[in-house]
Every structure is written in C-alpha cells, then in structure tokens.
Automatic annotation (TrEMBL):
NCBIfam families: PRK00278.2-4. Its EC number is 4.1.1.48. CDD domains: IGPS. One of its GO terms (biological process) is L-tryptophan biosynthetic process. It comes from the Bacteria. Residues 14-266 form the Indole-3-glycerol phosphate synthase domain. SUPFAM superfamilies: Ribulose-phoshate binding barrel. This is Indole-3-glycerol phosphate synthase. Belongs to the TrpC family. Keywords: Amino-acid biosynthesis, Aromatic amino acid biosynthesis, Decarboxylase, Lyase, Tryptophan biosynthesis. GO terms for molecular function: indole-3-glycerol-phosphate synthase activity; phosphoribosylanthranilate isomerase activity.
Length: 271
C-alpha cells in the first residue's frame, strides 16, 4: 500500500479498512468457497453495461451513491432505506448506482446489491475495498455489474490481475486513484474507467481542481470520473470544463430529504 507520510508511520484509514477487510475474508472463506458463488441465483444474471452509460457529450453523467455513513462524516443519513433511495436515483436519471457494501466503516451491506437490483434498471457498482479475487466472485454473486479497485490499496501487477479477473467474471471496473504517482502508474491499456478521488484520505480535505487536473490527462478513450465532495451546480460546471464525463456523488444526495429530487436539481442544467 502507498505510504501517506503520516507521523510515526501511523496506519491510515485505508490501512485500517483493508486490515479489517482481510480479517473478514478469513471468516467468509470458512463459510463459502469462491466456487460456491457459482450456484447463487444472481451469479448467472446478465450484467448491465456500466461504462456505456457514463459518457454523453456535453452532459454530466452521475454515479449516485447509496451510503449510510463514512469514516470522514460518521452517520450521514439516519433514515436509510437503500432500495427506496436507489429507486429514486434511477427515476431521476442516474447513469449508475454506487452501493457501499463495506460494513464496519460505512455501515454498508453486500445484500443491498441484490435488494436494489430488481428495483432499478441502471448498473450497480459495488463500492468496497477489493483486495482478493474472492471478492470479485462474491460481487458477481451478490448482483454487482462493476467493482471499484483502488490504486492506493492495490497497484501494479496485483491491480492488473484483479482487472483481468473482473473481466473474466463479466464485471467492469472503476479504477480509483488519488495521487499523481498512482495516476501515472496506471496502465491505460487495461483501465477503461478511471476515477480520481478529490478527497485526501489522510486529512479528508477536498480539492476538486487537483483531481480534475489529473483526470484531464487521461487518454480520450478512457471514461473519466470525478469522485467525492461534489455538491453544487458550480462544481458540475467545473467538472465539465475539465472534459470529465461523470461525477460520483454520495453525501450531498444522502443529506437531502429526497435524494432523487436532489439529483434532478443538481443536473437539470447539465443533462
Ligand atoms: O469518505 C470517506 O470518509 C472515505 C474514507 C476512506 C475511504 C473512502 C472514503 N470515501 C469513499 C468515497 O470515495 C466516497 O464515498 C465517494 O467518492 C462519494 O463521495 P461524497 O460525494 O463526498 O460522499
């Protein structure tokens, strides 16, 4: 994992999440082998095309996120009904729905994917911390169309292997990075959708322009996603000015009484 230069080498929040994820995996593997997932009903369901919906010339496409809590903000939404929120996003024109499935730090649940899937028509992104091939089979069995791979957590040969395994499993990937080093290390021949996180996961500060400047350097054929801290029409205008295709937005919608209406309001002049 990339060092984030914390004083005294303290573990970062990502270190903690990944350590917990690995602990969970030990227990999960005792319950089911990766091969067991092939008998799950949703494993055979046809997949929805995540990448195809993320690019529309001159328009912002939104990956709308279903998220109850986060390490930076604690509980974001007390009244949390993932299926109802996802159905609102679908009706409001989301290009895809990002579903937090990490349980300890985000209060997510893998089961949300299967609950949401029959109620919406758009692709579902499993938003989690993928470090093991097992989680790819698990994601497919749970009803995901795409997974998040985070370059801060998995890079180089391991990232390539996970990308390959996801493709074999019929899942598309959003590859997220934060730093210039991570961005420059990406093999764009393998990455079809790239995201840059605007939030520094050490300080939790958001810097939109840093992320957008990196995205603007990605090859034309790669779909570009700006992630985190977006909430105003001015933010969306800025994202589009940099030639970015899509925005991943969670907290802003989750804090509104009706997340679907908030999505419509935010995008009405850009879709
Ligand atoms: O947001 C956090 O606190 C966080 C901490 C550690 C790892 C990931 C984290 N966030 C995940 C995300 O990337 C966001 O959920 C996503 O980009 C949406 O951001 P926002 O619109 O700001 O909710």
């Amino acid at each position: 994992m990339t060092e984030l230069n914390l004083p005294f080498n303290q573990p970062t929040i990502l270190d903690k999440i990944v350590a917990q994820t690995r602990e969970d995996l030990v227990q999960k593997k005792k319950r089911h082998s990766a091969a067991d997932f092939r008998s799950f009903q949703l494993y055979e369901a046809p997949r929805r095309d995540f990448k195809a919906g993320l690019r529309k010339e001159g328009c912002i496409r939104v990956i709308a996120e279903v998220k109850k809590a986060s390490p930076s903000k604690g509980i974001i939404r007390e009244d949390f009904d993932p299926v109802r929120i996802a159905a609102q996003y679908d009706e409001a024109g989301a290009a895809a729905i990002s579903v937090l499935t990490e349980p300890h730090f985000f209060q997510g649940d893998l089961a949300y994917l299967g609950q949401i899937r029959p109620e919406v028509s758009v692709p579902l992104l499993r938003k989690d911390f993928i470090v093991d091939f097992y989680q790819i089979e698990e994601a497919r069995a749970a009803g995901a169309d795409a997974i998040l791979l985070i370059a801060t957590v998995t890079s180089g040969a391991q990232l390539s292997e996970l990308l390959h395994a996801a493709k074999e499993a019929g899942l598309q990937c959003l590859v997220e990075c934060y730093s210039r080093d991570e961005f420059e290390a990406l093999r764009f021949s393998e990455v079809e959708v790239v995201g840059v996180n605007n939030r520094n996961l050490k300080t939790f500060e958001v810097d939109l322009h840093r992320g957008l400047s990196l995205l603007a350097e990605a090859p034309n054929e790669v779909v570009k996603v700006s992630e985190s801290g977006l909430s105003t029409p001015h933010d969306i205008e800025t994202v589009l000015e940099y030639g970015v295709d899509a925005a991943l937005i969670g907290e802003h919608f989750m804090r509104q009484p009706h997340p679907g209406d908030a999505l419509k309001r935010l995008t009405e002049n850009f879709s």
